[in-house]
Amino acid sequence: MNGKIHVLNIDIDDCTAKEAMKQTVAYMGTEAINVIEMVTVDTLMYASGDPSLRENIEKIDLVIPGEKEILEGVDVREKRQLQEIEQRTYLKMFLRFLHKNHSRVFLLVETEEEAEGFYRFLEEDYSGIQIAGMAKVSPADEADDLVVNAVNGAEIDCVIASLSSPGQEEFIARNRLLLNARVWLGVGKSENPIYRSRGRLERIVQFINHRLFRHEVEKNRKKELETASEH
Prior knowledge:
Largest sheet: 6 strands, parallel
Number of helices: 11
Radius of gyration: 18 Å
Shape: globular
Distance between the termini: 32 Å
Helix content: 40-55%
Order of helices and strands: EEHEHHEHHHEHEHEHEHH
């Protein structure tokens, strides 16, 4: 691991997909649950103005950039890293690992449509993964008991959470000590297969969000330089 990248006051692990995968395999050999999240530009923008979300992200064991714009925003131009993020190399490596080892997985989503899309994707591309269960988690509902009981009753290796921020981070922060799994992988809603093929409007919204993110990073950098010069 090559240390951390500081983005909008949030530390992101600076590592290749292979290094992240090596750490993940180590986590899969432990009893206590380890938390991994692929963060997006939207999550970082939200966290920059939400101390609670920022605090929850700080508690995550492995924070991986989910969009190349995150690295570009802080002038990381290492071609290999950018390509790996764009090609979702780490996620593919992890899913292949779960497939090869016939691992038992529990899916957390927000809608029936998302559940069907994720299930179909794993069945078609990674049929060795045993989907032991899935549950819908409402961002507005903090009644976690049913979900936690379902996860623990399924005797799984890994939870894959495809939820919105900050709900995804809040759920694992509340329930980390209660879940019987080796790894929690938070991929966010954008990694759900039904959202991967974005329409023109979604691409325009994404482009605007990335521009706003770049502006926010620049503003934050100027503020840090001004603070440093005052001291």
